[in-house]
């Protein structure tokens, strides 16, 4: 499903450090990895926050370093430098020519979303016509569920993770209520086995096999927001569809992070936000996918004028000519400022490929994992000294760039101390600290510096 490393990241790191005549924990290895990194020039496309500008910094503790260690791309990606210029272009256009901006420029406002959608297709592995850029993520999830979830007396359930992101949980709950269904009976939630943190693919497939006849829609995340687990989307899709279910994914933590082939996998529908790994800014323009096989059969439940075919949209005849597929789901005219920010970001992605990003990502996250295990693996530390458990799957094919750490000491104090020293990451209840080295703008040396700071905090 993803770039399959024939050798593990740990083996690569050990081999390289032996060749360099150093230990894998030495700074020399990080510097070498950065020097060899073919994507390192892309970091210059982003504004990297400066230590001095972070509100969390304690100047008496932060190092002489200028740049913060930003490991929070899983929550909010960094700002591409071109965003400001692109926003200014549209603001200037508006100031200078008012409504004429609808039709002219690089992003005519009427078709702004359509101008940039081509840049998204390789990121999600879909045809342009299968993608719409619109709304926010949860709004898109609702619009898709309104069309794909058509319960019958025998097929009336939605399968999702027990620890799905709250917004997805509420979306499903409210969709069931909209149909007058009993939430307890209709919301089928799968949780990890007792004592385990992540779901086993075999358990997901077994549940689909057992309960599939009563399931109308399977909704999974691509990458789980808390654990960082990458689900086997092709197998879940195949198994669900074999039982007659529609299968959809929330790709908030997967898009721009792992390789996706939505079309080839035959996924029925998907949606994602663009402010995490796609770096479009908080509340950025979200995306939705509907497979072309449904283009003429699955129709929007709620229609607006931007779902009407462009050719005749402005005839104002009030006779709907619905654009086939997901583009018929667009309701309002596209928000020009959000289109501009996303445009700037997608252009950076299109300087490389998801497969090149993923290759770097596997090694970068593998390096972080290696160093954490080296210093804080349970078997490595003396009894009584703090340890760190990585709850994210250790196999690179079962995760994206995020690692979730659970500490043997109170997580909140570790988190606070990291923040004071210029590490930007986040903590999530109940006990995890999420770290996401992003291949577009994080370096191996960032990971090395993070570990030095962690060591100074965990003494
Ligand atoms: C997995 C997942 N789903 C849904 C959401 C909600 O997104 P939005 O506020 O853009 O609707 C988030 C936000 O972080 C998320 O991580």
UniProtKB/TrEMBL annotation:
Pyridoxal 5'-phosphate binds at residues 137-138, 165-168, 221, 250, 253, 275, 305, 333. Its cofactor is pyridoxal 5'-phosphate. The modification N6-(pyridoxal phosphate)lysine is found at residue 276. Gene3D superfamilies: Aspartate Aminotransferase, domain 1, Type I PLP-dependent aspartate aminotransferase-like (Major domain). The keyword Cytoplasm applies. GO terms for molecular function: kynureninase activity; pyridoxal phosphate binding. The keyword Ribosomal protein does not apply. It is found in: Cytoplasm. It is an enzyme of class 3 (hydrolase). GO terms for cellular component: cytoplasm. It comes from the Eukaryota. Its EC number is 3.7.1.3. InterPro entries: Kynureninase, PyrdxlP-dep_Trfase, PyrdxlP-dep_Trfase_major, PyrdxlP-dep_Trfase_small. Keywords: Acetylation, Cytoplasm, Hydrolase, Pyridine nucleotide biosynthesis, Pyridoxal phosphate. GO terms for biological process: 'de novo' NAD+ biosynthetic process from L-tryptophan; anthranilate metabolic process; L-kynurenine catabolic process; L-tryptophan catabolic process; quinolinate biosynthetic process. Pathway: Cofactor biosynthesis; NAD(+) biosynthesis; quinolinate from L-kynurenine: step 2/3; Amino-acid degradation; L-kynurenine degradation; L-alanine and anthranilate from L-kynurenine: step 1/1. It catalyses: L-kynurenine + H2O = anthranilate + L-alanine + H(+); 3-hydroxy-L-kynurenine + H2O = 3-hydroxyanthranilate + L-alanine + H(+). Pfam families: KYNU_C. Catalyzes the cleavage of L-kynurenine (L-Kyn) and L-3-hydroxykynurenine (L-3OHKyn) into anthranilic acid (AA) and 3-hydroxyanthranilic acid (3-OHAA), respectively. Has a preference for the L-3-hydroxy form. Also has cysteine-conjugate-beta-lyase activity. Homodimer. Belongs to the kynureninase family. This is Kynureninase. It comes from Ornithorhynchus anatinus.
């Amino acid at each position: 499903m993803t770039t399959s490393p024939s050798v593990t990241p740990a083996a690569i790191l050990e081999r390289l450090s032996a060749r360099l005549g150093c230990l894998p924990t030495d700074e020399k290895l990080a510097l070498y990895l950065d020097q060899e990194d073919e994507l390192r020039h892309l970091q210059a496309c982003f504004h990297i926050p400066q230590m001095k500008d972070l509100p969390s910094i304690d100047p008496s503790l932060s190092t002489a370093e200028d740049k913060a260690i930003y490991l929070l791309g899983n929550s909010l990606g960094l700002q591409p430098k071109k965003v400001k210029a692109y926003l200014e272009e549209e603001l200037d256009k508006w100031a200078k020519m008012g409504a004429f901006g609808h039709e002219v420029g690089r992003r005519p406002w009427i078709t702004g979303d359509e101008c940039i959608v081509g840049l998204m297709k390789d990121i999600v592995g879909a045809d342009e016509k299968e993608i719409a850029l619109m709304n926010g993520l949860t709004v898109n999830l609702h619009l898709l569920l309104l069309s794909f979830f058509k319960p019958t007396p025998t097929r009336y359930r939605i399968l999702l993770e027990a620890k799905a992101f709250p917004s997805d949980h509420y979306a499903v709950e409210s969709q069931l209520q909209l149909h007058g269904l009993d939430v307890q009976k209709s919301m089928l939630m799968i949780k990890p086995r007792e004592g385990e943190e992540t779901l086993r693919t075999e358990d997901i497939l077994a549940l689909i096999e057992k309960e599939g006849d009563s399931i109308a829609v399977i909704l999974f995340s691509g990458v789980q927001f808390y654990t960082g687990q990458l689900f086997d989307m092709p197998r879940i899709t195949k198994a669900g569809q074999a039982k007659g279910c529609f299968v959809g994914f929330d790709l908030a933590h997967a898009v721009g992070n792992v390789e996706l082939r939505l079309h080839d996998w035959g996924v029925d529908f998907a949606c994602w936000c663009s402010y995490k790994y796609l770096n479009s800014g908080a509340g950025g323009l979200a995306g939705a996918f509907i497979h072309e096989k449904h283009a003429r059969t699955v129709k929007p439940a709620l229609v607006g004028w931007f779902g009407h075919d462009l050719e005749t949209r402005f005839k104002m005849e009030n006779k709907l000519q619905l654009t086939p597929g997901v583009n018929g789901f667009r309701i309002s005219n596209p928000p020009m400022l959000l289109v501009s920010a996303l445009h700037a970001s997608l252009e950076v992605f299109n300087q490389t490929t998801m497969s090149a990003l993923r290759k770097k990502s596997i090694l970068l996250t593998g390096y972080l994992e290696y160093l954490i295990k080296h210093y804080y693996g349970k078997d490595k530390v003396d009894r009584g000294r703090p340890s760190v458990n990585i709850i994210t799957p250790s196999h690179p094919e079962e995760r994206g760039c995020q690692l979730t750490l659970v500490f043997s000491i109170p997580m909140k104090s570790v988190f606070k101390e990291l923040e004071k020293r210029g590490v930007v990451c986040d903590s999530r209840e109940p006990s995890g600290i999420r770290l996401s080295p992003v291949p577009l703008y994080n370096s191996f040396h960032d990971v090395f510096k993070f570990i030095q700071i962690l060591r100074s905090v965990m003494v």
